[in-house]
Task: inverse folding
């Protein structure tokens, strides 16, 4: 069928045709008698013998059934054209029964090839037209940074020659394929008009990239939206609205420039059209039922977006420029062009409620992108919106891109890309409207590439002429988009000059009045800038929540029930792997013995929270099974492909949902996504697990900018949990250390401040800290800290250094007695053996954390020093448990104090705990270091070296004469 046939110029071979044919159309099998596809696709026009198409035609004449039905249909049409002498194919009623004369054959072949050439020409514009589109408002750079023009799109004469067409063919009528809409209601057009309409659609101020999408319907949808003649028309009212929005965008920047000329504003000058663009997207989305819009953006233009899109009070924005602004009521705050905002309002165009949220973002420009996506996903989840229907620096771009466009990454996910010249406001509005409609129609991503310029430098104090003199000479001459568009509307009679000037004066008055009100505000409450408020979370019946840390244990029957489900398969006729059957039987045995290992303790923590209505979400690399094959939260049927079972979702009929999902190998993006997810609701336990703890280093930006400092900068409580497998086990430098020293260095508790030990000391510490860092040594401890994370009356990020070898260590088990009602998380687990019963006889008290405890206990036993050496574990490292450490030190007054860690001395915990020990002991007693020597790499890659260093520091830990004669 001609509408489906997609052939390249006949000079290309059939193999090339297969490679270059788009995936959104059918590629037909070559059917010529009994032979296979030819190695070449020769054409008599370019040498090489008789035309392959002619051979196909003659084969069809002899037997129409010998070729594919599409060729049959096509040659039926072509035969009628030949008999009628027309260029419009119609299906003939009778199939010719004999071969025509040679002249007829030549005429038919030419007719067929000319039609194919025109279709190839149309396709060339659809695929490559964006390369020659006029996208740069300054007219000095190609938007794709490449001055090369495809040879089939250079000039009319050249493109005709490329497709073996002649100038005489320009006025010939051609049948239009159904894969183009340039004809509107017409089915034929002259070649001259075809080219004119293609140039108008694809080579002006809009550049379209979409032909890589492998879906016919979606490609057709885009072609119809942009190719249909007269489709980009605006009413007088729409044009006036657009002008008014441009006025607000530009005059806001002008107002800031007049009032605070020496302040950094990171203004939007040069891209003022972004404000009406965003408002168009919101209007169109609201019209189609969207209720919630979440935005993420860098600092460029953020104040303008806050003012004119989110509709934040102008006096609140102007207040931020006051040099005498007093400190916020809590937290350090951040610069004005990093802050976020949340606002529910009526959309004036659609008269519907809409919620707008601009997520706060640091100077790391695109760090907010995954956060916004995660927050959006969470909003959809909690709203039950499964279909998703509600919801540059001063561097030459030629030096800053690894691909032609900054949007090329969108090709990976089959998202269409609409490039548009920012100095054509109507083109921008149309593109944005289509983008919103695409999102609503297909529930898929879409990218609008707004090609603009920056009228000033990186900030308002910067001089861009240093690095880009020619560009900024042109920018200085550039007429602002507001003036150009106003002149256009005045010339066409849509508005008068007086109306335009009145619109400007009206907004200027609004700004001046807000400026006056802003002077009366002495303190700016930073909570006005929250991007994720949690209504009702911090109060109960209008009163603040009680600052208590409740017990985290649960009834034994709940533990048993969860354990029974964890050791079974809830679905019938579900065949699991035999190795997994052994694991489930092992769990069943533990339940009978009232004990749990690490995986079962986690199962019970998650399951109990689900019972209490708390949504639990776990993501990371291979988390469904667990990196160390210990978790198995998703069971796979061994006989039915893709049939899975999540037993955690079969605990109780009315439980909250459990979400567990393996993530891609991109810690930066995934951790940002989960952080955004955790922002949406406080009533969820959101956890991200690194495959190995040190893999978090590629997500350090998210940790530094959002997790460590989020509350201090933006008053943003967040309860995200990071699970970081950690432990020196001879696995090499990339699979050992979760870098605890980094997290502890960023902890905000004061090492030199001697605290006041009040009754609520623990919960006050937790409330004041920026995050919680723990290294659990028992499954029960892990169980309790996960539950405490939700039961606290506030939210703090929780960093957990999880084990590897302890997952199956025979001694790393906990009894139900340590998890039942009335039990709680122990920040410090004191010695409970022989040494504890006679503390006055103890010669050395070793403090440690995590896995090394089991090495120490084993070594102590082998040396028979159970009465002389006590071992105390820190389960919570930050905030530092001053009160409990003081109790332990006083209990063993005559003992030497030692800190033992398996990490190197310049890593791990020593630099954090040492000054805090000195504070609590008033420097009266030293605390000695035992562990590995300082090193550059976090661990050795040699197993023998690892074991030698382990034996060395364990020997030192129990050498009771090791520190004699040394001074502190």
Result:
């Amino acid at each position: 069928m001609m509408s489906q046939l997609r052939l390249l110029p006949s000079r290309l071979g059939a193999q090339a045709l297969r490679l270059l044919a788009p995936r959104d159309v059918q590629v037909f099998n070559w059917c010529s008698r009994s032979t296979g596809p030819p190695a070449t696709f020769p054409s008599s026009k370019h040498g090489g013998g008789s035309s392959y198409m002619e051979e196909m035609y003659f084969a069809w004449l002899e037997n129409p059934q010998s070729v594919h039905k599409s060729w049959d249909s096509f040659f039926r049409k072509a035969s009628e054209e030949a008999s009628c002498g027309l260029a419009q194919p119609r299906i003939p009623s009778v199939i010719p029964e004999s071969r025509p004369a040679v002249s007829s054959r030549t005429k038919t072949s030419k007719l067929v090839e000319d039609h194919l050439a025109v279709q190839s020409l149309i396709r060339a514009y659809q695929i490559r037209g964006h390369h020659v589109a006029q996208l740069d408002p300054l007219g000095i750079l190609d938007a794709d940074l490449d001055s090369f023009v495809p040879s089939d799109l250079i000039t009319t004469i050249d493109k005709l020659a490329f497709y073996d067409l002649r100038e005489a063919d320009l006025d010939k009528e051609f049948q239009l394929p159904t894969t183009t809409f340039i004809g509107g209601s017409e089915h034929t057009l002259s070649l001259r008009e075809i080219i004119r309409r293609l140039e108008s659609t694809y080579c002006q101020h809009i550049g379209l990239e979409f032909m890589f999408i492998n879906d016919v319907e979606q490609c057709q949808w885009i072609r119809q939206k942009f190719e249909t003649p007269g489709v980009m028309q605006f009413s007088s009212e729409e044009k006036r609205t657009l002008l008014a929005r441009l006025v607000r965008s530009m005059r806001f920047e002008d107002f800031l420039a007049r009032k605070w000329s020496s302040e950094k504003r990171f203004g939007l000058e040069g891209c003022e059209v972004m404000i009406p663009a965003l408002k168009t997207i919101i209007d169109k989305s609201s019209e189609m039922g969207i209720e919630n819009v979440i935005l993420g953006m860098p600092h460029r233009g953020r104040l303008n977006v806050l003012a004119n899109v989110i509709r934040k009070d102008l006096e609140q924005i102007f207040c931020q420029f006051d040099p005498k602004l007093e400190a916020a009521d809590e937290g350090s705050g951040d610069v004005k062009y990093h802050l976020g905002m949340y606002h529910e309002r009526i959309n004036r165009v659609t008269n519907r409620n809409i919620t707008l949220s601009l997520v706060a973002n640091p100077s790391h420009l695109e760090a907010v992108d995954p956060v916004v996506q995660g927050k959006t996903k969470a909003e959809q989840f909690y709203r039950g919106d499964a279909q998703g229907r509600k919801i540059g620096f001063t561097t030459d771009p030629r030096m800053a891109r690894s691909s032609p466009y900054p949007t090329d990454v969108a090709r990976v996910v089959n998202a269409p890309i609409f490039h548009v010249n920012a100095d054509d406001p109507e083109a921008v509005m149309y593109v944005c409207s289509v983008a919103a409609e695409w999102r609503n129609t297909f529930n898929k991503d879409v990218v609008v590439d707004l090609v603009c310029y920056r009228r000033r430098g990186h900030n308002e104090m910067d001089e861009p002429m240093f690095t880009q003199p020619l560009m900024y000479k042109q920018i200085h001459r550039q007429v602002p988009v507001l003036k150009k568009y106003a002149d256009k509307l005045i010339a066409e009679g849509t508005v008068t000059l007086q109306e335009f000037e009145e619109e400007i004066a009206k907004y200027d008055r609004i700004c001046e009045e807000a400026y006056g009100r802003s002077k009366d505000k002495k303190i700016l409450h930073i909570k006005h800038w929250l991007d994720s408020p949690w209504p009702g979370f911090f109060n109960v019946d209008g009163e603040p929540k009680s600052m208590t840390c409740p017990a985290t244990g649960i009834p034994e029957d709940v533990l048993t029930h969860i354990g029974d489900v964890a050791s079974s398969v809830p679905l019938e006729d579900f065949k699991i792997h035999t190795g997994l059957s052994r694991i489930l039987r092992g769990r069943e045995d533990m339940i009978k013995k009232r004990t749990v290992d690490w995986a079962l303790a986690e199962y019970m923590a998650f399951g109990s929270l689900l019972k209490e209505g708390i949504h639990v979400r776990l993501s990371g690399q291979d988390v469904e099974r667990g990196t160390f094959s210990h978790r198995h939260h998703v069971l796979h049927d061994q006989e039915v492909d893709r049939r899975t079972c999540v037993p955690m979702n079969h605990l109780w009929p009315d439980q909250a949902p459990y979400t567990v999902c393996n993530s891609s190998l991109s810690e930066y993006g995934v951790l940002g996504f989960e952080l955004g997810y955790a922002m949406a609701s406080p009533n969820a336990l959101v956890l991200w697990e690194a495959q190995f703890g040190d893999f978090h280093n590629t997500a350090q930006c998210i940790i530094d900018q959002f997790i460590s400092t989020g509350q201090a900068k933006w008053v943003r409580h967040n309860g995200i949990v990071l699970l970081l497998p950690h432990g020196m086990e001879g696995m090499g430098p990339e699979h050992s250390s979760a870098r605890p020293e980094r997290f502890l260095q960023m902890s905000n508790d004061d090492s030199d401040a001697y605290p006041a030990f009040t009754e609520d000391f623990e919960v006050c510490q937790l409330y004041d800290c920026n995050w919680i860092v723990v290294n659990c040594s028992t499954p029960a401890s892990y169980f309790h800290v996960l539950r405490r994370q939700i039961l606290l009356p506030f939210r703090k990020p929780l960093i957990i250094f999880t084990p590897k070898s302890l997952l199956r260590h025979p001694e790393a088990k906990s009894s139900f007695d340590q998890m039942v009602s009335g039990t709680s998380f122990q920040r410090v687990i004191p010695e409970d053996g022989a040494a504890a019963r006679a503390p006055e006889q103890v010669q050395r008290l070793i403090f440690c954390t995590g896995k090394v405890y089991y090495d120490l206990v084993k070594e102590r036993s082998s040396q028979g020093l159970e009465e002389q050496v006590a071992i105390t574990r820190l389960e919570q490292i930050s905030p530092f448990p001053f009160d409990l450490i003081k109790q332990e030190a006083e209990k063993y007054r005559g003992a030497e104090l030692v800190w033992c860690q398996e990490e190197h001395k310049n890593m791990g915990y020593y630099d954090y705990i040492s000054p805090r020990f000195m504070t609590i002991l008033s420097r009266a007693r030293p605390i000695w270091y035992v562990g590995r020597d300082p090193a550059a790499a976090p661990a050795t890659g040699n197993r023998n070296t690892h074991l030698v260093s382990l034996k060395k520091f364990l020997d030192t830990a129990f050498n009771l004469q090791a520190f004699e004669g040394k001074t502190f």
Notes: The domain at 556-726+775-818 is CATH 3.40.50.12470 (Rossmann fold).
